[in-house]
Amino acid sequence: MHYTGLVNRYRSRLPFAPEVRAVTLNEGNTPLIELVNIPKRAGFEGRILVKFEGLNPTGSFKDRGMTAAVTQAVHEGSKAIICASTGNTSAAAAAYAARAGITAFVLIPDGKIALGKLAQAVVHGAVVVQIQGNFDDGMRLVKEVAQTTPVAIVNSINPYRLQGQKTAAFEIIEALGRAPDYHCLPVGNAGNISAYWMGYKEATGQRATASMGGYSLEAFSNNLPKMAGYQAAGAAPFLRGGRVANPETVATAIRIGDPQSWDHAWAAQKESGGWFDECTDAEILATQRLLAEQEGVWCEPASATSLCGALRDIKSGKIVQGATVVCTLTGNGLKDPDIVIQAGLKGLVQVAAERGAVEQAIVSQLR
Ligand code: F0G
């Protein structure tokens, strides 16, 4: 069967009638990769799996929400979409607008987005509006201008975004045969944690309806995970109990002080018996490196926040031994190579273009 994206795959669980044509880049269906080295190192006898959303078409989980939001916008006859973004939403909006043949307007914070993400918006032909402010300013402006101009908002305040994003929970249940015991996520605008919780809850309510060769096609779970949301310490409104005026973090994707899905995210935490916690920039970057070096998986800094928090909570015993833990890796490391290069070119050996010199370099580095 040719996979044609999550709107078609999960249409029976999404608010789209059969005749609504999906605007798709075959997003979703991302790998759930079991970590083999890190759990051993951490002395953890359970399982840690990463849902690598960086392998979506534009390199982040935003494609799940964007296929749904743009499908609906086009269905309603919109000719233009708009979003504020720390980079990934704008990349996805630009690509899906290109696919649909409509215009994308993206508001991004001045100088605080990873270069790869800016390039994505540009290459897909979006109108890039760089504002002298942060994401929260951009979000406020988008809401204001959408009242007076014919543009459809595709930030996660658009309910179709969360509908699309909830499908990641279905895929995880299908892969594991049940929901994990803990689900760990980075939290910025707080849409994704809200979407996963919605997906998990819906999957406990619906029994399998179709099967193919004995393999269940419809995600169904008897259990629900505890939802753990991790924020960057300099941008942690859920830890401060309210809006943070000047959020600051190296994880620019989650440099957000005024999350739009505040109530949904608190509900996910409370209903699931989960928690919020924070990670420092240094811890986040160390985890990004650890994952890349120990497992061969390169995610962007914000994404490493999920595993960073999970490993700390495993160590403290808050996440219990023997549990199954899923961490969402929200975006691809390739979006932000600067952050790695800035930290120094470890492993770079410069030698003359001579056989002896190269042999010497190899012998001295063998492990
Ligand atoms: N990780 C990455 C890589 C992100 O780009 C974002 C959000 C998050 C985590 C947080 O997810 O907002 O649902 O809590 N990026 C948005 C953007 C804000 O504009 O690309 P959230």
Walk me through what this model shows.
The chain is an alpha/beta fold. It contains 15 helices and twelve strands. The chain has helices at 6-9, 38-41, 62-75, 88-100, 115-123, 135-145, 159-165, 167-176, 191-205, 237-240, 262-272, 281-295, 301-316, 337-342, 355-365; strands spanning 32-34, 47-52, 80-84, 103-109, 127-131, 152-153, 182-186, 211-212, 215-216, 226-232, 275-279, 324-329. Helix 7 crosses helix 9 and helix 12 crosses helix 13 (301-316). The longest helix is centred in the C-terminal third of the chain and has 16 residues, at 301-316. The model is unreliable at 208-216 (pLDDT under 50). Bound molecules: ligand F0G. The site of ligand F0G has 22 residues, from helix 4, helix 9 and helix 13.
Précis, in short:
This protein is an alpha/beta fold and 367 residues long. The protein has helices spanning 6-9, 38-41, 62-75, 88-100, 115-123, 135-145, 159-165, 167-176, 191-205, 237-240, 262-272, 281-295, 301-316, 337-342, 355-365, and strands at residues 32-34, 47-52, 80-84, 103-109, 127-131, 152-153, 182-186, 211-212, 215-216, 226-232, 275-279, 324-329. It is 41% helix and 15% strand.
Distinct ligands: ligand F0G
Question: What is the CA–CA distance across the termini?
Answer: 44 Å
Mean pLDDT level:
95
Number of H- or I-type helical stretches = 15
Query: What is the helix/strand order?
Result: HEHEHEHEHEHEHHEHEEEHHEHHEHH
Strand content: 5-15%
For the CA atoms, what is the radius of gyration?
Answer: 21 Å
Specify the structural class.
Answer: alpha/beta
The poorly predicted ranges are: 208-216
Q: What is the global morphology?
A: globular
Numbering strands along the chain, what is their spatial order in the largest sheet?
1-2-12-7-10-11
Number of strand segments: 12
Helix content: 40-55%
Largest sheet: 6 strands, mixed
